[in-house]
Protein backbone atom coordinates (compact mmCIF):
# COMPACT_ATOMS: atom_id res chain seq x y z
CA UNK A 1 0.00 0.00 0.00
CA UNK A 2 1.42 3.39 -0.95
CA UNK A 3 1.73 5.85 1.89
CA UNK A 4 -0.05 9.12 1.29
CA UNK A 5 1.58 12.11 2.91
CA UNK A 6 -0.60 15.06 3.82
CA UNK A 7 0.51 18.16 5.67
CA UNK A 8 -1.05 19.20 8.96
CA UNK A 9 -3.03 22.38 8.43
CA UNK A 10 -1.38 24.28 11.29
CA UNK A 11 1.72 23.61 13.39
CA UNK A 12 1.73 25.77 16.53
CA UNK A 13 5.27 26.09 17.84
CA UNK A 14 5.25 26.86 21.57
CA UNK A 15 2.77 25.71 24.19
CA UNK A 16 2.64 28.87 26.29
CA UNK A 17 -0.22 31.32 26.70
CA UNK A 18 -0.41 32.18 23.00
CA UNK A 19 0.10 28.64 21.70
CA UNK A 20 -2.44 27.05 24.06
CA UNK A 21 -5.03 29.69 23.22
CA UNK A 22 -4.32 29.33 19.49
CA UNK A 23 -4.85 25.57 19.76
CA UNK A 24 -8.13 26.08 21.60
CA UNK A 25 -9.42 28.53 18.98
CA UNK A 26 -8.23 26.24 16.16
CA UNK A 27 -10.08 23.28 17.68
CA UNK A 28 -13.22 25.40 18.07
CA UNK A 29 -12.98 26.47 14.43
CA UNK A 30 -12.23 22.99 13.08
CA UNK A 31 -8.73 23.96 11.99
CA UNK A 32 -6.65 20.80 12.35
CA UNK A 33 -3.52 21.63 14.32
CA UNK A 34 -0.68 20.21 16.35
CA UNK A 35 0.76 21.97 19.40
CA UNK A 36 4.52 21.51 19.85
CA UNK A 37 6.19 22.41 23.16
CA UNK A 38 9.86 22.09 24.05
CA UNK A 39 9.30 21.62 27.80
CA UNK A 40 7.80 18.56 29.50
CA UNK A 41 4.50 20.33 29.99
CA UNK A 42 2.54 23.18 28.44
CA UNK A 43 1.99 26.54 30.12
CA UNK A 44 5.10 26.68 32.31
CA UNK A 45 5.24 30.48 32.29
CA UNK A 46 1.48 30.82 32.68
CA UNK A 47 1.84 28.90 35.94
CA UNK A 48 4.28 31.54 37.21
CA UNK A 49 2.16 34.56 36.34
CA UNK A 50 1.18 36.93 39.15
CA UNK A 51 2.95 34.72 41.68
CA UNK A 52 0.99 31.67 40.52
CA UNK A 53 -2.34 33.51 40.47
CA UNK A 54 -2.56 34.43 36.76
CA UNK A 55 -3.80 37.95 36.18
CA UNK A 56 -5.02 37.23 32.66
CA UNK A 57 -6.89 40.45 31.77
CA UNK A 58 -8.27 43.74 33.04
CA UNK A 59 -11.81 45.10 32.99
CA UNK A 60 -11.17 48.05 30.68
CA UNK A 61 -12.41 49.19 27.30
CA UNK A 62 -10.61 48.32 24.09
CA UNK A 63 -9.66 51.99 23.58
CA UNK A 64 -8.15 52.23 27.04
CA UNK A 65 -6.22 48.99 26.49
CA UNK A 66 -4.77 50.22 23.19
CA UNK A 67 -3.77 53.52 24.76
CA UNK A 68 -2.28 51.89 27.89
CA UNK A 69 0.03 49.54 25.99
CA UNK A 70 1.67 52.50 24.25
CA UNK A 71 3.98 51.87 21.28
CA UNK A 72 2.51 48.51 20.20
CA UNK A 73 -1.10 49.76 20.56
CA UNK A 74 -1.72 50.42 16.84
CA UNK A 75 -0.32 47.01 15.89
CA UNK A 76 -2.46 45.01 18.35
CA UNK A 77 -5.59 47.19 18.00
CA UNK A 78 -7.49 44.92 15.64
CA UNK A 79 -6.60 41.78 17.56
CA UNK A 80 -7.80 43.40 20.79
CA UNK A 81 -11.03 44.61 19.16
CA UNK A 82 -11.66 41.00 18.15
CA UNK A 83 -10.79 39.66 21.58
CA UNK A 84 -11.51 42.40 24.14
CA UNK A 85 -10.18 41.93 27.67
CA UNK A 86 -13.73 41.58 29.04
CA UNK A 87 -14.53 38.82 26.56
CA UNK A 88 -11.62 36.82 27.93
CA UNK A 89 -13.22 36.81 31.37
CA UNK A 90 -16.46 35.51 29.83
CA UNK A 91 -14.51 32.97 27.78
CA UNK A 92 -12.66 31.67 30.83
CA UNK A 93 -15.98 31.18 32.63
CA UNK A 94 -17.38 29.25 29.69
CA UNK A 95 -14.30 27.00 29.79
CA UNK A 96 -15.05 26.17 33.42
CA UNK A 97 -12.73 28.71 35.04
CA UNK A 98 -14.73 30.90 37.46
CA UNK A 99 -13.32 34.42 37.41
CA UNK A 100 -12.74 36.99 40.11
CA UNK A 101 -12.63 40.72 39.38
CA UNK A 102 -10.49 42.74 41.77
CA UNK A 103 -11.56 46.27 42.76
CA UNK A 104 -8.96 47.71 40.39
CA UNK A 105 -10.48 45.71 37.51
CA UNK A 106 -7.85 42.96 37.20
CA UNK A 107 -9.24 39.51 36.39
CA UNK A 108 -7.92 36.34 38.04
CA UNK A 109 -9.24 32.79 38.24
CA UNK A 110 -11.59 32.85 41.24
CA UNK A 111 -9.51 30.35 43.22
CA UNK A 112 -6.39 32.47 42.59
CA UNK A 113 -4.62 29.53 40.96
CA UNK A 114 -2.90 29.65 37.57
CA UNK A 115 -2.98 25.84 37.62
CA UNK A 116 -6.77 26.01 37.23
CA UNK A 117 -6.33 27.92 33.98
CA UNK A 118 -3.65 25.60 32.58
CA UNK A 119 -5.63 22.48 33.57
CA UNK A 120 -8.86 23.84 32.05
CA UNK A 121 -7.19 24.55 28.72
CA UNK A 122 -5.23 21.27 28.87
CA UNK A 123 -8.49 19.36 29.43
CA UNK A 124 -10.22 21.26 26.65
CA UNK A 125 -7.46 20.43 24.15
CA UNK A 126 -7.44 16.81 25.25
CA UNK A 127 -11.25 16.53 24.97
CA UNK A 128 -11.15 18.04 21.49
CA UNK A 129 -8.40 15.66 20.46
CA UNK A 130 -5.72 18.24 19.73
CA UNK A 131 -2.35 16.49 19.42
CA UNK A 132 0.12 17.96 21.92
CA UNK A 133 3.78 17.09 21.55
CA UNK A 134 5.77 17.90 24.69
CA UNK A 135 9.49 17.49 25.34
CA UNK A 136 9.77 18.39 21.70
CA UNK A 137 11.90 21.44 20.86
CA UNK A 138 11.47 22.61 17.29
CA UNK A 139 14.92 23.08 15.81
CA UNK A 140 14.19 24.62 12.43
CA UNK A 141 11.50 25.75 10.01
CA UNK A 142 12.08 25.45 6.31
CA UNK A 143 9.66 26.77 3.70
CA UNK A 144 8.84 24.21 0.99
CA UNK A 145 6.45 24.19 -1.97
CA UNK A 146 3.26 23.52 0.00
CA UNK A 147 4.06 24.85 3.45
CA UNK A 148 6.96 24.19 5.80
CA UNK A 149 9.07 21.37 7.07
CA UNK A 150 9.11 21.75 10.84
CA UNK A 151 12.17 19.99 12.22
CA UNK A 152 12.48 18.64 15.77
CA UNK A 153 15.31 16.66 17.32
CA UNK A 154 13.65 13.33 16.45
CA UNK A 155 11.39 13.80 13.45
CA UNK A 156 10.15 16.27 10.90
CA UNK A 157 6.62 17.35 10.24
CA UNK A 158 5.00 18.87 7.17
CA UNK A 159 2.67 21.80 7.90
CA UNK A 160 0.72 24.07 5.56
CA UNK A 161 0.93 26.93 8.06
CA UNK A 162 3.20 27.60 11.02
CA UNK A 163 2.35 29.79 14.00
CA UNK A 164 5.39 30.88 15.99
CA UNK A 165 4.32 31.30 19.63
CA UNK A 166 7.65 30.69 21.32
CA UNK A 167 7.58 33.68 23.68
CA UNK A 168 10.24 36.25 24.56
CA UNK A 169 13.64 35.58 26.10
CA UNK A 170 13.07 36.21 29.79
CA UNK A 171 12.80 33.36 32.31
CA UNK A 172 14.57 31.01 29.84
CA UNK A 173 14.21 28.11 32.30
CA UNK A 174 10.50 28.18 31.48
CA UNK A 175 11.27 27.45 27.81
CA UNK A 176 11.31 30.85 26.11
CA UNK A 177 14.87 31.14 24.83
CA UNK A 178 14.45 33.10 21.60
CA UNK A 179 14.06 30.17 19.19
CA UNK A 180 11.11 31.69 17.34
CA UNK A 181 12.97 34.95 16.84
CA UNK A 182 15.94 32.99 15.45
CA UNK A 183 13.69 31.03 13.06
CA UNK A 184 12.11 34.30 11.92
CA UNK A 185 15.52 35.92 11.43
CA UNK A 186 16.71 32.94 9.39
CA UNK A 187 13.65 33.49 7.18
CA UNK A 188 14.55 37.14 6.60
CA UNK A 189 12.80 38.94 9.47
CA UNK A 190 14.48 41.76 11.38
CA UNK A 191 14.58 41.67 15.16
CA UNK A 192 14.16 44.66 17.44
CA UNK A 193 16.93 44.38 20.10
CA UNK A 194 15.93 42.75 23.37
CA UNK A 195 15.61 44.81 26.53
CA UNK A 196 14.13 43.86 29.90
CA UNK A 197 10.58 45.04 30.57
CA UNK A 198 8.72 45.22 33.90
CA UNK A 199 11.71 44.58 36.09
CA UNK A 200 13.28 45.91 39.28
CA UNK A 201 15.84 48.71 39.45
CA UNK A 202 19.14 48.28 41.24
CA UNK A 203 20.42 50.54 43.98
CA UNK A 204 22.62 50.07 47.02
CA UNK A 205 21.06 53.16 48.64
CA UNK A 206 20.92 52.48 52.39
CA UNK A 207 17.35 53.84 52.62
CA UNK A 208 16.29 51.00 50.34
CA UNK A 209 18.44 47.99 51.21
CA UNK A 210 18.04 48.50 54.97
CA UNK A 211 14.28 47.90 54.48
CA UNK A 212 14.56 44.84 52.23
CA UNK A 213 11.33 42.85 52.52
CA UNK A 214 9.09 45.87 53.09
CA UNK A 215 6.27 46.63 50.66
CA UNK A 216 4.33 49.90 50.33
CA UNK A 217 1.03 49.98 48.49
CA UNK A 218 -0.24 53.21 46.93
CA UNK A 219 3.21 54.74 46.47
CA UNK A 220 3.42 57.53 43.90
CA UNK A 221 6.20 57.03 41.38
CA UNK A 222 7.35 59.62 38.85
CA UNK A 223 10.06 59.53 36.20
CA UNK A 224 11.38 62.63 34.51
CA UNK A 225 13.87 63.14 31.70
CA UNK A 226 17.00 65.30 32.26
CA UNK A 227 15.15 68.34 30.81
CA UNK A 228 12.40 67.85 33.42
CA UNK A 229 9.86 66.41 30.94
CA UNK A 230 7.57 63.91 32.74
CA UNK A 231 7.95 60.37 31.37
CA UNK A 232 5.88 58.38 33.83
CA UNK A 233 3.48 59.16 36.64
CA UNK A 234 1.81 56.27 38.40
CA UNK A 235 0.61 54.90 41.69
CA UNK A 236 0.98 51.37 42.96
CA UNK A 237 3.07 48.93 44.93
CA UNK A 238 6.74 49.59 45.64
CA UNK A 239 8.77 46.75 47.16
CA UNK A 240 12.14 47.13 48.87
CA UNK A 241 14.60 44.42 47.92
CA UNK A 242 18.18 43.59 48.72
CA UNK A 243 19.10 44.58 45.16
CA UNK A 244 16.98 47.75 45.08
CA UNK A 245 13.37 48.50 44.13
CA UNK A 246 10.62 46.38 42.61
CA UNK A 247 6.82 46.14 42.64
CA UNK A 248 4.20 47.05 40.03
CA UNK A 249 4.75 50.84 40.16
CA UNK A 250 8.51 50.44 39.69
CA UNK A 251 8.02 47.85 36.91
CA UNK A 252 5.75 50.18 34.97
CA UNK A 253 8.14 53.10 35.51
CA UNK A 254 11.05 50.97 34.26
CA UNK A 255 9.12 50.01 31.11
CA UNK A 256 8.48 53.67 30.33
CA UNK A 257 12.17 54.48 30.85
CA UNK A 258 13.06 51.86 28.22
CA UNK A 259 10.44 53.02 25.74
CA UNK A 260 11.54 56.63 26.17
CA UNK A 261 15.12 55.50 25.45
CA UNK A 262 16.43 57.24 28.58
CA UNK A 263 19.89 56.55 29.96
CA UNK A 264 19.69 59.48 32.35
CA UNK A 265 16.57 60.18 34.36
CA UNK A 266 15.23 61.06 37.80
CA UNK A 267 13.00 58.66 39.70
CA UNK A 268 10.88 60.09 42.51
CA UNK A 269 9.17 57.70 44.90
CA UNK A 270 6.61 59.30 47.20
CA UNK A 271 5.73 56.96 50.05
CA UNK A 272 3.40 59.48 51.68
CA UNK A 273 5.46 59.92 54.82
CA UNK A 274 8.75 60.05 52.95
CA UNK A 275 10.07 61.13 49.55
CA UNK A 276 12.94 59.29 47.89
CA UNK A 277 14.84 60.51 44.81
CA UNK A 278 17.13 58.40 42.64
CA UNK A 279 19.06 58.93 39.43
CA UNK A 280 19.82 56.62 36.50
CA UNK A 281 19.17 53.27 38.22
CA UNK A 282 20.08 50.20 36.18
CA UNK A 283 17.50 47.46 35.58
CA UNK A 284 17.95 43.86 36.76
CA UNK A 285 19.04 41.39 34.03
CA UNK A 286 16.78 40.50 31.10
CA UNK A 287 16.46 36.88 32.20
CA UNK A 288 14.51 38.08 35.26
CA UNK A 289 12.17 40.37 33.34
CA UNK A 290 8.42 39.81 33.34
CA UNK A 291 8.35 40.69 29.68
CA UNK A 292 10.80 41.04 26.81
CA UNK A 293 10.82 44.37 25.02
CA UNK A 294 11.96 43.67 21.45
CA UNK A 295 11.58 40.62 19.24
CA UNK A 296 10.25 40.12 15.73
CA UNK A 297 9.70 43.54 14.15
CA UNK A 298 5.95 44.12 13.87
CA UNK A 299 6.45 46.27 10.74
CA UNK A 300 7.00 42.96 8.94
CA UNK A 301 3.80 41.36 10.28
CA UNK A 302 0.29 42.08 8.96
CA UNK A 303 -1.75 43.27 11.98
CA UNK A 304 -4.99 42.06 10.34
CA UNK A 305 -3.80 38.48 10.10
CA UNK A 306 -0.61 38.16 12.19
CA UNK A 307 0.92 36.69 9.04
CA UNK A 308 4.49 37.45 8.04
CA UNK A 309 4.71 40.03 5.26
CA UNK A 310 7.85 38.25 4.06
CA UNK A 311 6.98 34.55 4.31
CA UNK A 312 3.43 33.56 3.34
CA UNK A 313 1.70 31.13 5.74
CA UNK A 314 4.05 31.98 8.61
CA UNK A 315 2.16 33.50 11.56
CA UNK A 316 3.15 35.00 14.90
CA UNK A 317 1.44 35.31 18.29
CA UNK A 318 2.47 36.63 21.69
CA UNK A 319 5.76 37.80 23.06
CA UNK A 320 7.90 36.44 20.20
CA UNK A 321 6.89 39.73 18.54
CA UNK A 322 8.03 43.17 19.63
CA UNK A 323 4.92 43.80 21.74
CA UNK A 324 4.77 44.50 25.46
CA UNK A 325 2.39 46.10 27.91
CA UNK A 326 2.24 47.25 31.53
CA UNK A 327 1.44 45.04 34.52
CA UNK A 328 -2.22 44.19 35.01
CA UNK A 329 -2.94 41.34 32.58
CA UNK A 330 -2.04 43.26 29.42
CA UNK A 331 0.68 40.86 28.28
CA UNK A 332 -1.44 37.73 28.58
CA UNK A 333 -4.37 39.48 26.91
CA UNK A 334 -2.11 40.38 23.96
CA UNK A 335 -0.79 36.80 23.76
CA UNK A 336 -4.38 35.45 23.65
CA UNK A 337 -5.72 38.10 21.28
CA UNK A 338 -2.90 37.84 18.73
CA UNK A 339 -3.20 34.04 18.81
CA UNK A 340 -6.92 34.24 18.13
CA UNK A 341 -6.41 36.74 15.29
CA UNK A 342 -3.84 34.48 13.64
CA UNK A 343 -6.04 31.39 13.77
CA UNK A 344 -9.21 33.18 12.65
CA UNK A 345 -7.44 34.86 9.75
CA UNK A 346 -6.00 31.51 8.72
CA UNK A 347 -9.44 29.96 8.77
CA UNK A 348 -11.16 32.74 6.88
CA UNK A 349 -8.27 33.61 4.62
CA UNK A 350 -6.96 37.12 4.53
CA UNK A 351 -9.13 39.58 6.45
CA UNK A 352 -10.50 42.46 4.32
C1 LIG B 1 7.14 35.84 36.63
C2 LIG B 1 6.19 36.34 35.59
C3 LIG B 1 4.94 36.78 35.94
C4 LIG B 1 4.06 37.26 34.96
N1 LIG B 1 2.81 37.66 35.34
C5 LIG B 1 1.92 38.09 34.39
C6 LIG B 1 0.59 38.42 34.73
O1 LIG B 1 0.15 38.24 35.87
N2 LIG B 1 -0.22 38.90 33.75
C7 LIG B 1 0.22 39.06 32.46
O2 LIG B 1 -0.57 39.48 31.61
N3 LIG B 1 1.46 38.68 32.09
C8 LIG B 1 2.32 38.20 33.02
N4 LIG B 1 3.58 37.82 32.65
C9 LIG B 1 3.95 37.89 31.21
C10 LIG B 1 3.32 36.71 30.46
O3 LIG B 1 3.53 35.52 31.17
C11 LIG B 1 3.90 36.58 29.06
O4 LIG B 1 3.81 37.80 28.38
C12 LIG B 1 3.15 35.49 28.28
O5 LIG B 1 3.33 34.24 28.92
C13 LIG B 1 3.64 35.42 26.85
O6 LIG B 1 2.99 34.33 26.24
P1 LIG B 1 3.67 33.57 25.02
O7 LIG B 1 2.79 32.42 24.71
O8 LIG B 1 4.01 34.54 23.97
O9 LIG B 1 5.06 33.04 25.60
P2 LIG B 1 5.31 31.94 26.74
O10 LIG B 1 4.19 31.91 27.69
O11 LIG B 1 6.68 32.21 27.24
O12 LIG B 1 5.29 30.57 25.94
C14 LIG B 1 6.25 30.24 24.97
C15 LIG B 1 6.33 28.73 24.91
O13 LIG B 1 7.07 28.33 23.76
C16 LIG B 1 7.88 27.23 24.11
N5 LIG B 1 8.99 27.16 23.17
C17 LIG B 1 10.02 28.03 23.04
N6 LIG B 1 10.86 27.62 22.07
C18 LIG B 1 10.34 26.48 21.56
C19 LIG B 1 10.75 25.56 20.54
N7 LIG B 1 11.89 25.73 19.84
N8 LIG B 1 9.99 24.46 20.27
C20 LIG B 1 8.85 24.24 20.98
N9 LIG B 1 8.41 25.08 21.97
C21 LIG B 1 9.15 26.17 22.25
C22 LIG B 1 8.32 27.55 25.53
O14 LIG B 1 8.79 26.41 26.20
C23 LIG B 1 7.05 28.14 26.12
O15 LIG B 1 6.23 27.16 26.72
C24 LIG B 1 4.45 37.31 33.60
C25 LIG B 1 5.72 36.84 33.24
C26 LIG B 1 6.59 36.36 34.22
C27 LIG B 1 7.93 35.85 33.80
Overview of this structure, please?
With 352 residues, the protein is α+β, with helices and mostly antiparallel strands. It folds into two domains: 8-195 and 289-348, FAD/NAD(P)-binding domain; 200-283, Sandwich (Immunoglobulin-like), CATH 2.60.40. Helix content is 30%, strand content 29%. It is built from ten helices and 21 strands. Strands 1, 2, 6, 7, 8, 9 and 21 form a seven-stranded mixed sheet that branches. A seven-stranded antiparallel sheet has the order 16-15-12-13-14-11-17. Strands 3-5-4 form a three-stranded antiparallel sheet. A hairpin with a 4-residue loop joins strand 19 (301-302) and strand 20. The longest helix is centred in the C-terminal third of the chain and has 19 residues, at 330-348. The radius of gyration is 21 Å and the shape is globular. The protein starts with 7 loop residues before the first strand and ends with a helix. The model has no long low-confidence stretch (mean pLDDT 96).
List the helices and strands and how they pair.
Layout: E1 8-13, H1 17-28, E2 33-36, H2 44-52, E3 57-58, H3 62-69, H4 73-82, H5 85-94, E4 99-101, E5 106-109, H6 114-127, E6 132-133, E7 138-144, E8 147-152, E9 156-164, H7 179-186, E10 191-197, E11 201-202, H8 206-209, E12 215-224, E13 230-240, E14 244-246, H9 248-259, E15 266-270, E16 275-279, E17 282-283, E18 291-296, E19 301-302, E20 307-308, E21 314-316, H10 330-348
Helix pairs in contact: 1-6, 1-10, 2-6, 3-4, 4-10
Flavin-adenine dinucleotide is lined by residues 13-19, 36-39, 44-46, 48-50, 55, 137-138, 165-167, 170-171, 175-177, 179, 290-291, 318-320, 329-332, 335.
Amino acid sequence: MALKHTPVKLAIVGGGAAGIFAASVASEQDVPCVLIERKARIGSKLLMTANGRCNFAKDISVERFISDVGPCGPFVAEAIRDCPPRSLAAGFKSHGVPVRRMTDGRFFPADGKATTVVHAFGDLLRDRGVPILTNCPVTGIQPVKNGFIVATANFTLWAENVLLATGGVSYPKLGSVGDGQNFARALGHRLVPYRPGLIGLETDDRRVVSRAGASIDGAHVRVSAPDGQPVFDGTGEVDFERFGLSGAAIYNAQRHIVHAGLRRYTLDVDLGHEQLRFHDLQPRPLKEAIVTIGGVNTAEIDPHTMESRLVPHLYFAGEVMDIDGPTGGYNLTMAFATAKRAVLSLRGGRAP
